[in-house]
Design goal:
globular; 22 helices; mainly alpha
C-alpha cells in the first residue's frame, strides 16, 4: 500500500494537481477500498485543526505581515547597513544579518523573501548590484527564517511529532546562526570576483543613531525567546506577544502602520492560514489511514533490515527530504513524512528534536531548489526576474546550505545543547 500511495502521490503532484486535492482524494479512496467507516472522514478532517498549538501559526504570520507594513523591516535593514555594510561583500552581509534578525520575529521564509526582500533588492540594485545577485543572496538568506525561532514549520513538526515547541525553537538557534555565518563567509570570498560594491564605513554616531531607531524592533526576538525560555509564555502565547508588540510599534512608536495596511495584513494572514490549515486537515485524514495500515512499522522493518547505522539512515533520509523539497512545499511535506519517518529514526536512538531541525533545514533548501522552489518564485515577482535566472544565481549558495545541513546532521549537539541546557 505504502509504495503505491507514494507513487500515486508523486504522479499527481508532477501533473500539477493541488496538494489539498491529492491528500484528501487519496485518503477517501483508501478509506473506501479498505471498507473503513466513512464517518471517520469528517471526524479526522476536523481533528487535524483541533490543536491549541496551531494557533501559533496565524499569530506569527500576522506578526510578519505587520512588520512588513509598520516600518520595522526598513529600520532593521538600515541598522544592519550601518553596522556591516563597509565589510567586503557590502550589502550582501547586510542582507544576511537582516534576515537573521527578521527571522527571530516572523518565522517564515516567504515572509522574509517577500517583505524584507523588497527592501533589500531595491537597496542593493540602487547601490550598484546586479539584480540577479541581489535576488540570489535574498533568496538564500530567507532560508534562515524558519530555522531561527520562532518557526512556523517547527510548530507544525512539533504538533505532528508531539514534541515540545519550546525545545524545537531553541534547537534551531545554533544551526540558524551557523547558516548565516557560513553565508557571510561565502559572500566575503566571492565579493572580489563578483565585484560587489562596498558602502562607506558609517561613523559611530550614525551607527548609534540607527541602533536607537531600530532598538524597539530589535528587542522583539529577545522578548519572544526570553518569554519562552523563562516559561512566562508558551510558544503559542509568544506568537500573540509578537502580534501585540508589532501593533504597538506600528501604531504608536513608529506610527507608520495605517488602518488600511492593518486590514491588508489581516487579509493576507487569513488567506495564508486558511491554505495551511486546510492542508493540515487533509493530511491528518491521510495520516490516519497510513497509521492504521501500520505503514510506519513496515518502513521501519524494511529500513532496519538494510542497516542499523543511525548516521547512514539519517543521511539517506536527508537525500529523500531534499528530493521531496524539490517538489513539495514544506508544510505538506512535514505532515506526510513525519509520521512515516519519525518512528524509524526514534527506534535507532535519533533525538526527535534533532530530527525536527534537520528536517526543516532540508525543506528550507527545497525552497530554493528547482523545479518548485517557492522562495524563488516569490523573489521572481519581487525582483521582476524569471525564476530560471534566480535559480542559476543561487547555485553558489548551496555550498553553505548543504555544508550546514551536513554539520547539523553529523553533530546532534549543535541542535540539542541549548534545549538540554535550558530545559
Amino acid at each position: 500500500m505504502l509504495l503505491g500511495l507514494l507513487l500515486l502521490f508523486v504522479f499527481l503532484l508532477i501533473i500539477g494537481v493541488p496538494v489539498f486535492y491529492i491528500l484528501s482524494s487519496l485518503a477517501v479512496y483508501y478509506i473506501y477500498i479498505l471498507d473503513l467507516p466513512l464517518k471517520m472522514i469528517p471526524q479526522r478532517f476536523v481533528a487535524g485543526a483541533d490543536s491549541f498549538v496551531l494557533l501559533a501559526v496565524p499569530f506569527f504570520i500576522l506578526a510578519g505581515e505587520l512588520m512588513n507594513n509598520s516600518g520595522i523591516t526598513t529600520r532593521i535593514f538600515d541598522f544592519c547597513s550601518k553596522l556591516v555594510g563597509h565589510i567586503k561583500g557590502g550589502l550582501g552581509h547586510v542582507n544576511i544579518l537582516a534576515s537573521i534578525i527578521f527571522s527571530g520575529m516572523s518565522g517564515s521564509a516567504l515572509a522574509d523573501a517577500a517583505g524584507l526582500g523588497l527592501v533589500e533588492v531595491k537597496a542593493m540594485v540602487d547601490a550598484g548590484w546586479h539584480k540577479e545577485d541581489a535576488a540570489a543572496v535574498t533568496v538564500a538568506s530567507a532560508t534562515i527564517g524558519p530555522i531561527i525561532p520562532p518557526s512556523i514549520p517547527l510548530v507544525i513538526y512539533g504538533v505532528v511529532a508531539e514534541q515540545s515547541i519550546g525545545r524545537l525553537f531553541l534547537g534551531g538557534v545554533i544551526p540558524g546562526l551557523l547558516l548565516g555565518i557560513t553565508m557571510m563567509v561565502l559572500v566575503y570570498i566571492i565579493a572580489g570576483r563578483k565585484n560587489f560594491p562596498v558602502q562607506t564605513r558609517a561613523s559611530l554616531k550614525s551607527i548609534f543613531s540607527s541602533f536607537i531607531s531600530a532598538s524597539p524592533a530589535l528587542l522583539m526576538p529577545v522578548f519572544i525567546l526570553g518569554f519562552i525560555a523563562l516559561g512566562i509564555t508558551s510558544p503559542t502565547e509568544a506568537g500573540l506577544v509578537a502580534v501585540a508588540y508589532s501593533l504597538i510599534l506600528g501604531f504608536f512608536i513608529y506610527k507608520e502602520l495605517t488602518l488600511a495596511n492593518f486590514m491588508k495584513a489581516l487579509n493576507n494572514t487569513v488567506k495564508t492560514t486558511t491554505t495551511i490549515m486546510i492542508i493540515v486537515c487533509a493530511a491528518n485524514l491521510l495520516g490516519w489511514v497510513i497509521t492504521i495500515q501500520r505503514a510506519a512499522d513496515v518502513l521501519a522493518t524494511y529500513t532496519l533490515s538494510i542497516t542499523e547505522n543511525p548516521v547512514l539512515i539519517l543521511l539517506a533520509v536527508n537525500l529523500l527530504l531534499i528530493v521531496v523539497g524539490c517538489f513539495m512545499e514544506s508544510i505538506s511535506a512535514l505532515l506526510i513524512f513525519v509520521p512515516l519517518l519519525l518512528p524509524v529514526l526514534t527506534s535507532i536512538g535519533i533525538d526527535p528534536i534533532h530530527f525536527g531541525v534537520v528536517m526543516v533545514l532540508n525543506l528550507m533548501i527545497g525552497l530554493v531548489t528547482p523545479p518548485f522552489g517557492m522562495s524563488v518564485f516569490v523573489m521572481g515577482k519581487v525582483a521582476n526576474l524569471s525564476p530560471e535566472i534566480i535559480f542559476r544565481s543561487t547555485l553558489i549558495y548551496y555550498i553553505p546550505l548543504f555544508g550546514t545541513l551536513l554539520l547539523v546532521t553529523l553533530f546532534p549537539s549543535l541542535v540539542t545543547w541549548i534545549p538540554n541546557l535550558l530545559f
